[in-house]
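Structure ticket #2291
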Amino acid sequence: MPEIIDYDNVVSAVVDILQKAQTTLPKDVITALEKAKDRETSNIAKEQIEAILKNIEIAGNRKIPICQDTGIIIFFVELGRKAVIGFNLEDAIHEGVRIATRSIPLRPNAVDPLSRSNTGDNTGEGIPDIRYEINDSNSIKITVAPKGAGSENMSAIRMFNPTEKENIRNFILDTVLNAGGKPCPPIIVGIGIGGSFDKAARLAKNALLKNTEDMTEQERMLLEDINSLGIGPMGLGGKTTALAVHIKKAHCHTASLPVAVNIQCWANRHASVTLGGDA
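Resolution: structure written out below.
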């Protein structure tokens, strides 16, 4: 029998996962930071990571945002074909964001791109950014991933000629090197390869949701290359410029090779909830 999803449950769930994402970090990110601290030989680098870990602890205990930049709000929604929704799901998500902005509270970051007029509630035209995937379940899984501007502004995309595959590595390293300490390293690097211009960027951002410890050999090699740059925690030097590198790919046009690099600061915030289903 199809599972009926309630409007109020969605609103409450959005508030709850925003609270969780803004005030705590996934365990794998904390573990990666702790391991990075143990690897560092520079006292300055070690102290920076210790300060980050203390910041995370205080935010969790006091239930306050980890960073003053509570980000632009991005949602990934996995929508089951068998789930019954008798309301506008986007309206419910927007309402949850408005309530969370007041209750957590969140810094109002959503502005008109040209007039810079602020809506005051983190909603607006096209914001929050909601991305949908359809599956065969009878549930809805909602993941929120707030994205701060400091790291987002250091991201890049390039449309390569298909014969330039060997230049992808240098493009990634140059992007990280040019970012330096601006995105508050240690960073997580999401890479999208293939698709179209916009698909590559979406792949790169989605890659940031992967577990930091779940890396392929190719990703680990890139991580070593990035950490050899010596940028280090907060750009002050050290062994840990990045905690993880994740790549997602999609087939692309025979005459095209898009590559996107989405940089995420150490505060890789995301949280999920599943509504409906058999559980």
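Closing remark: The longest helix spans residues 43-62.
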